[in-house]
Amino acid sequence: MRAGAIETASSVNGQIMPPVMGRLPLMIEYVGIPYTDIIRHALLPAVISYIALFYIVHLEALKLGIQPMMASGKPKTFTQKLAGWGMGTAGTLIVMGLVYWIGVGVQAVAGEAAIWILLLLLLVLYVFLLKVAADHEDLPTDINVNTPVRPEPWPTVRAGLYFLIPIGILVWCLTVEVMSAGLSAFWAVVAMLFQMATQRPIIAWFRKQATAQPLRQGVSEVWTGLQEGARNMVGIGIACGTAGLIVGAITLTGLGLRMTAFVELVSMGNVLVMLFFTAAVCLVLGLGMPTTANYILMATLMAPVVVELGAQSGMVIPLIAVHMFVFYYGIMADITPPVGLATFAAAAISGEDPIKTGVQGVTYAMRTAVLPFMFIFNPMLLLIGIHSAWELVLVVVGATVASLAFAAATMGWLRIKTSWLETILLLLVTFMLFRPDWFMDHVSEKYQSRPASELMQVVQSTPTGQSGGATGRDEPGRQGFAENGCRVPACLAGRDQATGLAAASKRLSLAGLTVMAFGDTAQVASVAFGSSARRAGWEQGWDIQQVKVPHPDRPSEFWVFVPAFLILIWLWTRQGVRMRRALPPHGAAQT
């Protein structure tokens, strides 16, 4: 028996979109997704990924014994730090708002002459910020790496505020002027070159010092920067050319389509194996691809494979989760050797070997790669199916802690080095927090059976967001199971003028099904050609013998969080005891 669902896409800008295929059940869902919903679905995974990466760097520093930089001056209280962060954030937002409205206002008043006025204002701002920098001492160039001292934040910021001007130009050209990425970067680089040539002589002039030597030094730095940039671009250009050959070979020969067929063949219906192969294929297809082209290619070639094979294996995978899964691993190709363009750019900045940089980057990034697998199996991580603020808090906290636990397990370090038992327990905590529904399914059944004679009543009364199902036998005797997600648009969720059998029939017809009741059973009378039901595998003549509805007495899956957090607290305490025992008697060593 297999489970699954059908999802249908509906109106986008008033146009009726074709259905999206699932498997065997009836899930009526309108998927005209606005940008705000996409941002909402992607927000939590993105935030969790960044938090996990910061935590991975922290654990790496602990493993290497790197001590934090000592703050200069008197330590600040928590209230002082909070006030400083608040004032800094508020000031940044105010300045950004002023810059935007001044720029828009000048464009509205001056028309075609606005560009010259804006350049003049930008020059005045640049000179003013250099005056601010000249009033403060230069930052020290010799730093003792053994006992580094962190400089005071605000004096450091004031001494380098003018460096934000090229970034502001880049953002302005991209967002306000809507220039291309290449042209926006060009003007930002021009501004940066102008700064490199003029910052030293102008600061020297404000300090009443000689300007000839700083001017020669600035021009020399510009020339050296252009030379080093050209040299660094040689490797990146070769990588781009190689990536172009690979992409051309894949797309022109049809190898990409063969890869999707290979995934379908090798997975043999196993969803987890299919996801692993899909991730590997996305890493290959995403080599050297720009972001937009990367998404189009992944969504075209790989997303249908995940939806189709997942549905055939009995999984209801939301379409947004599938697209985010394939896009995530397509973008991962940017840091994957040997054609990771981002690693070549990072290596050019650090001066290290690009391949070694890529290997280290993949080592860190793959510790966050468990997240796409988790939101495929648990769409609540994409904020899908959350019905209260309390559920939202539990999902956010649980997913964040799970990601940190997975990072600690794969790094082999929590507070100190983990033992094999602690690593296994951390992986168990990760799975419990990411997939609490899997454990609850072994405690209580998710669905309860109802007679097939109640099919129409169940379809008509099922609220938006809930799911049900149907089991049955087709005419040749083959067993079939439909984990039916009867999610309907709000306008059809009990708000139709039609009621009873008419409303239920309308919902079924949206998926292309016509069902007739025969006493205690029901039979599929017809399946519309090209409909979601036809694509999902429904066939005329199938008998429906049972209806599955959500179990009303099933405990909340979030109860699984309780033992998970207890295990985590025990691990934290156990490691604290071990850490204190490992300290020398004088207590000088710290982790």
Description:
The chain contains 22 helices and eight strands. It is α+β, with helices and mostly antiparallel strands and 591 residues long. The strands form two sheets. Strands 3, 4, 5, 6, 7 and 8 form a six-stranded antiparallel beta sheet that branches. Strands 1-2 form a two-stranded parallel ribbon. A hairpin with a 2-residue loop joins β6 and β7. α1 packs parallel to α16. The two termini are 53 Å apart.
**pLDDT below 50 for ≥5 consecutive residues: which ranges?**
1-32, 464-498, 587-591
| Helix residue percentage | 55-70%
Contiguous helical run count: 22
Strand and helix order? HEHHEHHHHHHHHHHHHHHHEHEEHEEHEH
Largest sheet: 6 strands, antiparallel
Strand pairing plus helix content: what structural class? alpha+beta
Distance between the termini: 53 Å
Brief characterization of the structure:
With 591 residues, this protein is α+β, with helices and mostly antiparallel strands. 59% of the residues lie in helices and 7% in strands. It contains 22 helices and eight strands.
